[in-house]
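Here is one chain, start to finish.
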Amino acid sequence: MHQSAHDTDTCFLNRDISVRRVVPEDQETLRTWRNAHSERFFYREKITPAQQRQWFTHYLTRDEDHLFMVLVKALPTGCIGIRLLDDHWDLYNVIRGVHRLHSRGCMGTALHHVIEFAIQRKAMPVQLKVLANNPACDWYKDNQFSVIKTEKDHIIMQYQTPSSASPNLIPHS
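Its structure:
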């Protein structure tokens, strides 16, 4: 079960970008962002406040399911989820909710730190499933993901690192 919402759950912080676990107060922001981009999700229907609360309550019961709020200059800008499935980490709910003047590149930076967070917890491949017509496919490719399987309406991508010796570990500098 997740810890208290206001524990120190920031997994990355610099003067411009921070990534922290979502808290109950983030639910309406998350719902608004998700609904604004509903055509890019497998479930395309709009989410109601009651559905959001139900999802969040269930989310809090899953130990290896982590949804992070990405903040740029302390302002919520996006979110990134990562959860442990049987044989890999699954990246989900990657949403750039607000396009701010100084937020370019921040989601990519946050993405790599969320991946590092997960791999430090358990060294497993990191994958995602995305609708084939989602414009984010190119962004994922720009952020070291490659297609490993193509289905009728979606593709499965896996995170690749420059190191061929440890294909799923992020080198520390």
